[in-house]
Amino acid sequence: MTGREKILNLLGIAYRARKVLCGDFAVSAYVQKSKVPLLFLASDSGKDNREKYRHWCAQKNITIIDIYTKEELGRAAGNKYHVVIGVTDAGLARAMRKERQAMV
């Protein structure tokens, strides 16, 4: 199993445990309150969304993982597609960050 697949599996676990926020409205509110330790941003998202979340996450010191398409994120979270997903559980976020760093 590759690192990409492990991260998506962890995201699926977090989704089933209800430790993620999906969608622009919910995620943006939690990012602004610094309650999201990790953010998934689709690599094929719109320019405005990418700039908005990169700016917010840089200010709040939130890690962004942007190596997945919106279809891949959607499959991991049980939907057709998702552009942005926030992970609210610190332990799962740490495991995903660790796996991402191992890929580099």
From TrEMBL:
Q: Which InterPro entries match?
A: Ribosomal_eL30-like_sf (IPR029064), Ribosomal_eL8/eL30/eS12/Gad45 (IPR004038)
The reply on keyword Glycoprotein is no
Q: Which UniProt keywords apply?
A: Ribonucleoprotein, Ribosomal protein
- A single GO cellular-component term on record: ribosome
Which protein is depicted?
Ribosomal protein L7Ae
Does the keyword field hold Protease? no
Report the Pfam families cross-referenced here: Ribosomal_L7Ae
User: Residue ranges of the Ribosomal protein eL8/eL30/eS12/Gadd45 domain?
Assistant: 6-91
Q: Which domain of life is it from?
A: Bacteria
Q: What is the lineage of its organism?
A: Bacteria, Bacillati, Bacillota, Negativicutes, Veillonellales
